[in-house]
Design brief:
Layout lengths: L2 H11 L43 H26 L4 H14 L1 H10 L3 H16 L8 H4 L9 H7 L7 E4 L3 E4 H13 L8 H17 L4 H8 L3 H18 L1
Antiparallel strand pairs: 1-2
Helix pairs in contact: 1-11, 2-9, 3-9, 4-5, 7-8, 7-11
Length: 248
């Protein structure tokens, strides 16, 4: 897996509130071997891959800087403080948030006519919500039912809808016209989030973001600080990651 794909996944998970996807992100449970930071050979894989129109680059760069300041000044310090909580408890909390996103994933798999994945996601939700005690544990994975998260942006992409243009959303992070509208659609159609107020949804996303960041090994900072132009790097990472998710 290239460094761009790993950073793109970070943009959808660890920057969870910055990306809330920082979806709306992340889906961080216990990190497996594939989620380890960077392998040495990654530094030699420089393939820009897919591109996207960025007509608002100057505004996006300013927003990117704002989000970076929010991450470093607020989100990460809180996440570091949260590490006083034993890691198994934080992993269970991450599992809980991941389980909450399973119904909308199943719906999108169904919209993509991917019946096996839809069945897997639905089964995961039932098993983890019951045997797994409201999703705090993940017995479904040990049964061979591996998570394969789907969202409306991916669904639209599967049917040929392009990204449109790139946008960095204040407090939310990397997105595109397609994926931004898709996130709104996910929230509106989600049987769990839909009954909640906006404040409750924001609180859940913040809690998910901080949990994901507390389990992260400072990956964002390392990628940001090593990039010649962090804005270009994360834009490329985001687009490459999303293209890969659509093609899966």
């Amino acid at each position: 897996m290239s460094v761009f794909k790993k950073a793109g996944r970070l943009g959808l998970t660890s920057l969870a509130v910055i990306s809330l996807q920082l979806g709306l992100v992340s889906q961080a449970g216990a990190q497996d071997d594939d989620d380890d930071f960077l392998e040495e050979e990654d530094f030699f894989e420089f393939d820009e891959g897919p591109t996207i129109a960025d007509p608002f680059e100057s505004i996006n760069r300013a927003t990117f800087a704002l989000n970076d300041s929010l991450y470093r000044g607020v989100l990460k310090p809180v996440a570091v403080a949260f590490r006083v909580v034993p890691e198994p408890a934080r992993v269970s909390l991450s599992n809980f948030f991941s389980n909450l996103g399973t119904p909308i994933s199943a719906i999108n798999a169904l919209l993509q006519l991917d019946l096996p994945n839809a069945g897997t996601e639905a089964s995961r939700f039932v098993i983890n919500s019951t045997i797994g005690i409201l999703g705090l544990f993940d017995p479904a994975s040990s049964m061979g039912l591996e998570q394969d998260t789907e969202d409306l942006g991916q669904t639209l992409g599967r049917y040929g809808v392009g990204h449109g243009f790139y946008v960095v959303i204040p407090f939310l992070g990397f997105s595109s016209l397609r994926d931004g509208l898709g996130s709104l659609g996910n929230t509106a159609a989600d049987p769990i989030l839909n009954p909640l107020s906006s404040g409750e949804i924001i609180a859940l996303n913040l809690a998910e973001a901080e949990t994901a960041l507390s389990l992260d090994a400072d990956t964002y900072e390392a990628l940001y600080d090593s990039a010649i132009d962090p804005y270009i790097f994360f834009r490329t990472s985001y687009i490459q990651n999303r293209a890969g998710r659509v093609e899966e």
